[in-house]
Amino acid sequence: MNSFNRVILLGNLTRDPEVRYIPSGTAVASFAIAVNRRYKQGDEMKDEVSYIDIVVFGKTAENCGQYLNKGDAILVEGRLQQRRWDDKDSGQKRSKVEVVAQTVNFMPKRSGQAAGQGGKHDQQEPAPEQPVDEGDIPF
Question: Cα separation of 12 and 36, whole Å?
Fold first, then answer.
């Protein structure tokens, strides 16, 4: 039987990405995003938040670590992966489902989230009337 494993999520980072390097030299970034769902129950509007762990490899991981901050909106495309291990302390079997991202699209900043307002990478954005050379964009 054929299988299909594809996920697309739009959410906001709950923390700054953590970048590390595995022995082969490949960058690995990990972070979580909050994905909101609003629905109506009777006459009342309800909000539901899911927190999803994301793992990214290679140059995309380095770009995430350099350009993303807590609160930034991203669109992630990838696949679900389940990791299993034995807990060292209790000896119990543990598992975790996470998204292994194949592409990460950085979404535009909200108007109140302009450069210089507390991000770890305070970069000035060009004025709207200045053209941006797409060759300067690292992703």
Answer: 9
Mapped onto helix, strand or coil, the DSSP state of residue 60 is helix
Residues 6 or more apart whose Cβ sits within 8 Å of residue 27: 19, 20, 21, 57, 58, 59, 61, 62, 65
The per-residue pLDDT for range 97-121, each reduced to its tens digit, is 999 999 999 999 876 655 444 444 4
For 41, residues 6+ apart whose C-beta sits below 8 A from its C-beta are: none
State pTM to two decimals. Answer: 0.74
Cα–Cα distance measured from residue 46 to residue 32, given in angstroms and rounded to the nearest whole number? 22
Instruction: Check whether 68 has a pLDDT greater than 70.
Output: yes
